[in-house]
C-alpha cells in the first residue's frame, strides 16, 4: 500500500454510496408504502428483519454475507454460474453488502413519513380516480419530502462510513474495494498518523455537514407545520 494522501478511496466510497442510495431508494419506496398501509401480522417480522443491520455487529453481518455470497454457497455459486459475477472481494459484492447493511436507514424514514400522511388525502386521491401507483408517486412522495431527503442523506452518509461489512466482504483491494474507512485503518497500521488524520478529518467534516443538513430539514419541517 502507498502511504500519503490518495483521493481514490474517497472517490470509491462516494461511488459506492451513490449507487447504494439509488438502489435502496428504488427498493424501499414500494416496500415502505406497503408496510405503512398494511395491518398484517407479518408486519413486525418484516420490520424486525429489515432493521437487523442496525443492531447487529458489522462483523457478524459481514461474516454471514461472506459465507452466503461465496461461490461455494448455493446462492453465490448460482449467481456466478448464471451471471458470471463473483461477489467476494469485488466491488459488486461490496455493493450487495452495502445495500443490505444500509437498508433500514432508507426504509425507516420513508415508512415513517408515509404513515404520517393524512388518510383523508389518500381517500381524496382515490375518489378522484387515481390508482395506487399514481397516488404513491403524485400524492404521497411530494408530501413526504423531508422524510425522502432524510432517507437519501442518511443512507449516503452511512454507506460512506461503512467499515466492518466492507472489510469482511471486500477486503482491501486498491481501486476495487479499498474505501476511505479501510484506508484509514491501514494507515494507522502503518503508523502514518498524519495521513490518517487528514482522511479522518475529511470524514468528520462530511458527517457533520450531513447531520446538520438533516437537522435543518427537520427544523424547517416543524416550523412550517
Automatic annotation (TrEMBL):
<feature type="transmembrane region" description="Helical">
    <location>
        <begin position="45"/>
        <end position="67"/>
    </location>
</feature>
<dbReference type="Pfam" id="PF00528">
    <property type="entry name" value="BPD_transp_1"/>
</dbReference>
<keyword id="KW-0500">Molybdenum</keyword>
<feature type="transmembrane region" description="Helical">
    <location>
        <begin position="12"/>
        <end position="33"/>
    </location>
</feature>
<comment type="function">
    <text>Part of the binding-protein-dependent transport system for molybdenum; probably responsible for the translocation of the substrate across the membrane.</text>
</comment>
<feature type="transmembrane region" description="Helical">
    <location>
        <begin position="87"/>
        <end position="107"/>
    </location>
</feature>
<feature type="domain" description="ABC transmembrane type-1">
    <location>
        <begin position="10"/>
        <end position="214"/>
    </location>
</feature>
<dbReference type="InterPro" id="IPR000515">
    <property type="entry name" value="MetI-like"/>
</dbReference>
<keyword id="KW-1133">Transmembrane helix</keyword>
<dbReference type="InterPro" id="IPR035906">
    <property type="entry name" value="MetI-like_sf"/>
</dbReference>
<keyword id="KW-0812">Transmembrane</keyword>
<feature type="transmembrane region" description="Helical">
    <location>
        <begin position="196"/>
        <end position="217"/>
    </location>
</feature>
<dbReference type="GO" id="GO:0005886">
    <property type="term" value="C:plasma membrane"/>
</dbReference>
<keyword id="KW-0472">Membrane</keyword>
<comment type="similarity">
    <text>Belongs to the binding-protein-dependent transport system permease family. CysTW subfamily.</text>
</comment>
<keyword id="KW-1003">Cell membrane</keyword>
<keyword id="KW-0813">Transport</keyword>
<dbReference type="InterPro" id="IPR011867">
    <property type="entry name" value="ModB_ABC"/>
</dbReference>
<dbReference type="GO" id="GO:0015098">
    <property type="term" value="F:molybdate ion transmembrane transporter activity"/>
</dbReference>
<protein>
    <recommendedName>
        <fullName>Molybdenum transport system permease</fullName>
    </recommendedName>
</protein>
Amino acid at each position: 500500500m502507498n502511504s500519503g494522501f490518495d483521493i481514490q478511496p474517497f472517490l470509491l466510497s462516494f461511488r459506492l454510496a451513490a449507487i447504494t442510495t439509488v438502489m435502496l431508494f428504488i427498493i424501499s419506496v414500494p416496500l415502505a408504502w406497503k408496510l405503512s398501509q398494511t395491518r398484517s401480522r407479518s408486519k413486525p417480522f418484516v420490520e424486525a428483519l429489515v432493521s437487523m443491520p442496525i443492531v447487529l455487529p458489522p462483523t457478524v453481518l459481514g461474516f454471514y454475507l461472506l459465507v452466503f455470497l461465496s461461490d461455494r454457497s448455493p446462492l453465490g455459486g448460482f449467481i456466478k454460474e448464471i451471471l458470471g459475477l463473483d461477489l467476494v472481494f469485488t466491488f459488486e459484492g461490496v455493493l450487495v453488502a452495502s445495500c443490505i447493511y444500509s437498508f433500514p436507514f432508507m426504509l425507516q424514514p420513508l415508512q415513517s413519513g408515509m404513515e404520517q400522511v393524512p388518510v383523508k388525502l389518500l381517500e381524496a386521491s382515490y375518489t378522484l380516480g387515481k390508482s395506487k401507483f399514481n397516488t404513491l408517486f403524485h400524492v404521497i412522495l411530494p408530501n413526504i419530502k423531508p422524510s425522502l431527503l432524510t432517507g437519501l442523506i442518511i443512507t449516503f452518509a452511512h454507506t460512506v462510513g461503512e467499515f466492518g461489512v466492507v472489510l469482511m466482504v471486500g477486503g482491501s483491494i486498491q481501486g476495487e474495494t479499498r474505501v476511505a474507512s479501510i484506508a484509514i485503518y491501514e494507515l494507522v497500521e502503518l503508523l502514518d498518523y498524519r495521513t490518517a488524520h487528514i482522511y479522518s478529518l475529511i470524514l468528520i467534516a462530511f458527517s457533520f455537514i450531513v447531520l446538520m443538513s438533516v437537522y435543518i430539514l427537520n427544523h424547517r419541517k416543524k416550523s412550517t407545520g
